[in-house]
Amino acid sequence: MSDTAAPAPSDARPRDGAGRIAAELLKDDFGWALGVIMRRYLRAAEEIVNDVPGGPRGYQVVASASQNLATNQGAMAAQLGIDRTVLTYLIDDLEAAGLVSRQPDPADRRSRRVVATEAGKALWQDRQAALASAEAEILSVLGRDEPAFKELLQRVAIHADRLDPMHNACQAVEEMQEQETRRRRRH
């Protein structure tokens, strides 16, 4: 943990009456806290990758291809939790934009690897830095406790995934975004 003391809970609460009441009522609500953090991160991420073909999904493909994380399109679909058919169209769009290319898999000529172009690698590095900045803004309240928080969060995420494995990350994010849209329409 940190050498410095964390701010007292009252220091982190909003100063306005309604915000202070909401924060007090929801201080032990795990779902509310996760939702607020996720909503803020998704808004920032959407702004950062909205011009990439396919938005966040397209960025994930470019990121995977830039790091050579998948041996072929099938492996990439499984890795990213994107339906293979959807991935094919997404790669078509990214290829048309000059961000990735399909190359024969040296291990299996029937299979294709998705490889980032120089433009794709540059986009990934640029957006990776912007996403890290958005993350840093959200977590800035933690100060030197941020690395410990991230490590604990990773442990919880791994445990939660073991309890209920996520087979399609895109679907999970889309469902959360749909819930947020429905919530906004009600208010």
TrEMBL record:
<feature type="domain" description="HTH marR-type">
    <location>
        <begin position="27"/>
        <end position="164"/>
    </location>
</feature>
<dbReference type="InterPro" id="IPR036390">
    <property type="entry name" value="WH_DNA-bd_sf"/>
</dbReference>
<keyword id="KW-0238">DNA-binding</keyword>
<dbReference type="InterPro" id="IPR036388">
    <property type="entry name" value="WH-like_DNA-bd_sf"/>
</dbReference>
<dbReference type="Pfam" id="PF01047">
    <property type="entry name" value="MarR"/>
</dbReference>
<protein>
    <recommendedName>
        <fullName>HTH marR-type domain-containing protein</fullName>
    </recommendedName>
</protein>
<dbReference type="InterPro" id="IPR039422">
    <property type="entry name" value="MarR/SlyA-like"/>
</dbReference>
<keyword id="KW-0805">Transcription regulation</keyword>
<keyword id="KW-0804">Transcription</keyword>
<dbReference type="InterPro" id="IPR000835">
    <property type="entry name" value="HTH_MarR-typ"/>
</dbReference>
